[in-house]
Each structure stands twice: as C-alpha cells, then as structure tokens.
TrEMBL record:
Gene3D superfamilies named among the record's database cross-references: Exo-inulinase, domain 1, Glycosyl hydrolase domain, family 43
Primary location recorded for the protein, binned into one broad class: cytoplasm
UniProt keyword RNA-binding, yes or no: no
One Pfam family this sequence matches: Glyco_hydro_32C
EC number, UniProt record: 3.2.1.26
Protein name stated in the entry: Sucrose-6-phosphate hydrolase
Function: Enables the bacterium to metabolize sucrose as a sole carbon source.
Signal peptide limits: none
Keywords on record: Carbohydrate metabolism, Cytoplasm, Glycosidase, Hydrolase
Catalytic activity line of the entry: Hydrolysis of terminal non-reducing beta-D-fructofuranoside residues in beta-D-fructofuranosides
All copies of domain Glycosyl hydrolase family 32 N-terminal, residue ranges: 31-333
GO CC list: cytoplasm
Keyword Isomerase belongs to the record: no
Amino acid sequence: MPNPKSYQEINQNLNNYYSNKETSIWRNNFHIEMPFGLINDPNGLSYYDNKFYIFYQWNPFGCEHKTKHWGLVTTTNFTNFTKPQISLKPQDWFDRNGCYSGCGLVKDNELKLYYTGNVKGPNGERESYQCLATCNKDGVIEKHGVIIDKQPNGYTAHFRDPYVFIEDNTYYMILGVQSEDLKGRALIYESTDSVKWGLLGELKTDMKDFGYMWECPNIIRISKDKHAFIFSPQGLEKEELKNQNLYQSGYVIGELDIKSVELKNHSRFKELDMGFDFYAPQIFNHNGKNIMIGWIGMPDRDSEYPTYEHGWMYSLTMPRVLEYKNNVLYQNPINEIRNLRETQLIDIKGLTLNNYNLALESRSVEIMISIEVENVEFTEVKFKFNDEYISITYDNKRQLCTVDRSNMNIGGKGIRKFKLNSLKELKMNVFIDNSVMEIYYQDGLEVTTLTYYPKSEGLELQIRNDSKITINELNMWNLRSVKYE
C-alpha cells in the first residue's frame, strides 16, 4: 500500500486496508503494527473510560524517523482493537517537527497526555518543549501547549520523554536528559495539580558514566519499599554477554527517596530483553499490575527491516506483566493473550526420544516446552523455514543460552548470548508471529524478542541434544489474529 500524502488520504487508506486486508508472509497477526508508515515507541499507556489506550509514535507518511505523530488504538481485552487513528499532529509552533514520546495520566475525569514537542531550527538546532494535551470520553483531544519551557541550565536540548508518577499525593515527572558534558541523566519535576511543574532536581544514582543519553525513563513501585527505574541508555560499551545491541533498555531496582531525589542502594543495570529488537518500553499500572509494552525495533538500524520496501515498518510487543521476585523483574505475556488460542496442535508429557521434528503449516503459534537438561551438555531448539533457520542453543555446563539468526537470508542477522540458570529443566514459552518471535525463558526470568523475514511460509520445529531428549511437556496452539474494528 503506498504511503498517503495527506490526512484525508490517511483515513481513506485505513478504511481500504481493513476492508481488504493485505496478505503478506511478513504481516503479523497478533502484534500491533500500522498498515503503512513507521511505528515506534509506545506512548500514553492508560486505562480510561473502561478501556485501554495504547498510543504510539507514528509517521503515517513514510518509513523515516520524522514527522512523528501520536497514533492510537483502544481495546477492552487485548484481542479486539479499534482501528488506528491519529491523535496528536505536529502542527503547532511548539511541536512542529514532531510530537515525541510521553505518557498518560487519568485525572479529573479526563486523560492527560504529556509529550515532548520537537522543534528544529534552520540549521538543525534542536528545541525541546514538554507539552500537555487532554482526551475526553468522546475521544476529543485538545492541546494545551507548553508546560515546561526548554531544559534547565547544565543540560543540552536532548530533554524529552516525560513520564508522570505519583508519590504521597504529589505528582512527579521524570525526563530523560543529557548533561552538557554529554552524560545520560534524568531530571525530576514535581507538581501539586499535574499542570504547573517545578524542577526538583537530577535523580542521583551510582551511574555517573553510563552512556551519553537516557531515553524513555519510567519509575514504578514494585514493592512496599522498592522502585524500579526503567530507561533506555544510549552509548554503553558492548560486552560479550551484555549490551550486545546498539542501544539497551533495562532497569535498576532501589529505594526511592523523593525528597533527596535519590535512588538509594540500587542494583546493577539489568537488560529487560536479551534479543535483537526491543527498545523504549513504557509501563502503566492497572489493578495492581505493572504492564509493559515495548517497541520491536532498534534506532539507527532501519536497514535490518526489509518491510521498508513495502511501505511499513516495526511493531509493538505483546503487553507483558512485570513481577518482582528474587530481586529481579520477571516478564510474562498478559493473560488475555491466551484467548487467541485456537486449535491445540500438540499435547505431550513425559516423552523420551532421539530427536524431535514437527512440520507446521502456520507461523502464528504459541509453544510451551519443558526439556530435561540436567544430564546433557547442550540442547538445541531450531525453527526452520526450508533452508533458513533460527536456533536457540543451551549449554548446560556454562549455563549459557545462544540465539542465532545468522542463517536467515533477509533482514537482521547475528548472535545474542546470555546467562540463563536452568537447574534441571529448560523452560520456554514461545510466541511466533509471521515476522516476530517473543521467547520467555524460565517462567519469564529472561526474554528475547527478535524479527525475522523468511522467504517461505512454512515452519518446522526441531529439538535435539547430545543424548536422548526428555520432553517433560510440550504444548502448542494455533493463534488467531487480533481484530481491528
């Protein structure tokens, strides 16, 4: 579908797309993506008026990182969605070059939307304004202009991505910033009414030299006395088992002393996703659950995503529930995703064999598998697409997991390695969509998200190790598409 050139064409193309939905071996079934243009950071995640609001960065006019709007879908169940629509347009002096990322806050019977207005000067110089808009129950969105005017002294114009949280009946806003000596930092503002904001200070952490920019910061309460600071640092040094992507998204856990603007006794930075394609997550709380959605993509790596040639790029992750236990954040898909299950293809318990092979007709499946690894050195799970494949290898002696997509012909390639403590069994919950995989290990202790672009439609599952395979459990379901109405 060609990219539209006007807002009228956007509406026409949306109607045409969902009336005659395009079939493509790379179009995903249960991951949110746009019919055309480029989608990236999730924004404004909220529960308002008995439905979930999922905003996101969207360039509807092309597959370049420019002209960023806020798009919107809503849902009551995460399986049926409204058709995408544009909610914020970059049309005012304070956001004319992009309505950049931000958050949502339900207050006074309306949904407040905080975002960064991006303005570029004639020579490319940047100005950043923190802005406010509101959405009512009729879906009418009204801009209210600038609420924080440019960055304070000591910081560059990389000053963006507002995220609002509440502590002791006071509103706080955390922003990702860059100091004038080019270090990533976060600033916190405070407000009594969520409209007028004053600078509280820079968030004090032990991360003095931790990249040159911190994007998309979140602060969430995860227990009575613990908070998680979740952010996306840029400029970390690559290591063998850490920071293997160009940019990272992860968290530290500590004790937030808001009066002194300090995260005390915090843990080391831990990446949220050890795969290839995950960035800029946002979290919101609903009924006591911290729910996270991330962008399936990576900045400055557009050439690894061949759907560019078809006029669309990127997707959002399934919603994940974050649970704090054993001093880390576990992640698992929100329960409503299970409602996409259709035919159960496999139900195996307690099977021992030399190797396992299964050909599937669909690439829209969920797989739950548990394999004995206590007495073997390595185990390999392979997803084959004729002569192409993605392999997941587990080295039990080294407690090392390797995800390898080097044998795919199109799109991003490479290898990712990470430590994974399995004890006696390797457990994986795999969600395969037409060009996205999300793999949850050991009940959500680790996750890998990756894109892949096979030339064929089929899928074959292979399992092998250096001895006989004991499959404690193997379940598999076809997954239906989410619906847009």
